[in-house]
Design brief:
Chains A, B: It holds the Pfam family Aminotran_1_2. Chains A, B: Residues 54-372 form the Aminotransferase class I/classII large domain. Chains A, B: This is Putative 8-amino-7-oxononanoate synthase. 2 copies of one chain form a homodimer. Chain A is globular and about 55 Å long. Chain A is of the alpha/beta class. Chain A has helices at residues 13-21, 62-74, 90-101, 116-124, 142-151, 171-184, 242-253, 258-269, 272-298, 323-332, 362-376, and strands at 27-28, 84-87, 107-112, 128-135, 139-140, 154-157, 188-191, 216-221, 233-237, 302-304, 312-317, 335-336, 338-339, 352-356. Chains A and B meet through helix 3, helix 4, helix 7 and helix 8 of A and helix 3, helix 4, helix 7 and helix 8 of B.
Chain lengths: 377, 377
């Protein structure tokens, strides 16, 4: 009865864990939720005069598109507002780009590990994966990358504070990748939701800003900097792709929520960067707390890098371990963790975890890590 | 470079016309916009205490799902909240149902004429169409329907104030169709956005409420009763379909806008039905104005039925006419109209228009129709 793609609609481990993790009393390192204290709350008084109740434009509110284009130009992406498509969350961008490029057998270069919900969407549309190992210290493996690029029809990269590895591609690597994509003519889909959450200095220019010839889609999100509940993201695309993506967006939801668009436009016109400056210390403190807790409780069992941005620690066990069994036992002990193999399209051959630090207090981070340690010993 | 489905991504005549129709001074019968005077404006004071800024549940806010299920039960759909999926506009439901059922060659029973944006989505995913002629007076052709049902893998119907024909299936017809779908085991996708806009008495129970065995998805919208800018709709599905649709929704946008969900929950808890009662006289007056204007200016050239609900007149010319040329000339004369053949998967063999009455004042309706008449004579 169903379309064949439904067989590829994987049951989401993440959904199941997140449901369990939201039980009262559970310390959750499993999700990727912003700190409650960091959520942006729109000013109700500024809703009074809005006129955003009628149908709107598929591409987004014109002023918001202008504001997003201006932010992108400041990052080194040559673009104008006509290339901006407002999204109902950047997950929608993954759906639209999947529809544009991917059918059964389309070969997609992905990082290993990679953002899970992107992999799931690509798989739903029939992608075959060309994984490129991303080391938390050295970044993408050059041999893997070149081999994959020879066959790839689309490359999906999250070069800035990658979820889950935390890795941030430096300038030289970005230049090399841009040149390779240009030479191969492979479209780049660059996903950049964590850029503003930079704890130790700003991130390098996006890779799409370094391309000369290859087609590209760049996307960002307001969920990490403002509020996920407002469900708004954006994509910016090479001009040749914009008409197709716009029609795909129209078929998906006609247009995005206009109230959220106006609230976020208000934030962009004054307050977004101040808000980010206010929330960064909260995240930095929690990141440092998790680093200290890992050192204190698990230092002899795991290796990890302190992330310079984003929301996650990527933790690798020195000895192989059944992380799914650990996850179950940890949940029973009131700690939610995410097994790392969920982020691979093929088994990684070692044991790892993704641990979120943004949604727990420093005290809970230490307590959760202590509970994990007692399970492991 | 692109997936094959992009070849099926039809350039949208509607988009082009709507862009032209929004120019100042143009009287538009082309779109399907609610009256500006009828738009629901949320009370900013009630936003103050909302806590809806974090990530939410894919299925929707629990209280909203309960409220929607209660409304559906009152319509005669046996369901509970677990079967409700909140949507980012009911267009998203069309995308999700397309993903669930349709791949290349899937045979879909559709009305002729049918809702254009549904046909476009089905086509994008590769549907072959089995059209059933819907007469504005007699409804769906029984012969067409039975022939189509023998081959169909999915049936898409908008039985209540159908867009564009305006037809409303009576009880006996709904019963017969439900029995036929049950016998054939063909899933029914019932799209019901106009139900509340009933000018001459409530619409009959939805067809899905009459099914015994066939799988089903029912969907509705808050865009016609409250405000399109809040971009919220819902679907209710047979329990076997809910897990798949939920995962498809998660891959599309994680969850719907939480602020809109809470604003619409507030409306459902008090005010929605009063709001609808207030706006119905506006629509009824405009419908009657268009009926009078058609009679006055075009009575000898066209046939039409006064719609008992919804937003459109379906107008058929007594003599064949190039409606696309008329559309161009009308635009130059400051009137936007929608050629009727856009709503068919195969040419209908006669000339027709869809005319929207909800977004123009009675004065503008008369003036627009006078301009059309002068072009036609």
């Amino acid at each position: 009865m169903f379309a064949k793609r439904i067989e590829r609609l994987t049951s989401s481990l993440v959904r199941d864990i997140l449901a369990a993790a939201s039980r009262p009393g559970v310390i959750s390192f499993a999700g990727g939720l912003p700190a409650e204290e960091a959520l942006y709350r729109p000013d109700p008084a500024r809703i009074q005069d809005l006129n955003c109740w009628q149908y709107g434009q598929t591409e987004g509110e014109p002023q918001l598109r202008e504001a997003i284009a201006a932010e992108a130009r400041a990052l080194g992406i040559a673009c104008d507002a006509s290339q901006v498509l407002v999204l109902s969350g950047s997950q929608q961008g993954i759906d639209l780009v999947s529809k544009l490029f991917i059918e059964e057998g389309t070969r997609v270069l992905v990082e290993a590990p990679a953002y899970l919900a992107a992999v799931q969407s690509f798989r739903l549309f029939g992608a075959d994966f060309l994984p490129v190992t991303v080391d938390p210290v050295a970044g993408p493996d050059a041999g893997d990358f070149n081999t994959a690029l020879e066959q790839a029809q689309l490359a999906y990269l999250t070069p800035t504070f990658q979820n889950p590895s935390g890795y941030c591609y430096p300038d030289a690597q970005r230049d090399r990748i841009a040149a390779a994509l240009d030479a191969a003519g492979v479209p780049l889909f660059e996903d950049d939701p964590y850029r503003e959450l930079a704890f130790d200095g700003a991130a390098p220019q996006p890779i799409v800003g370094r391309l000369q010839r290859a087609p590209w889609v760049y996307q960002g999100s307001f969920s990490k900097t403002l509020a996920p509940g407002l469900r708004l993201g954006f994509l910016i695309a090479h001009p040749d792709l914009v008409p197709h993506l716009t029609r795909l967006k129209q078929a998906a939801d006609l247009h995005s929520n206009r109230l959220s668009q106006h609230l976020i436009l208000q934030a962009l016109q004054g307050g977004l960067h101040e808000h980010v400056a206010q929330i960064l210390p909260i995240y930095r403190e929690r990141r440092d707390a998790m680093a200290a807790a890992l050192e204190r409780h698990l230092g002899d069992l795991v290796t990890w890098q302190k992330p310079v941005g984003g929301l996650f620690f990527w933790v690798r066990f020195k000895q192989p371990l059944d992380t799914h069994a650990l996850m179950q036992r940890a949940l029973e002990a009131g700690v939610a963790i995410m097994p790392g193999d969920a982020f691979y399209t093929a088994p990684p051959g070692f044991s790892c975890l993704r641990l979120n630090f943004s949604h727990s207090t420093p005290q809970d981070i230490d307590e959760g890590m202590a509970r994990l340690a007692s399970l492991l010993r």
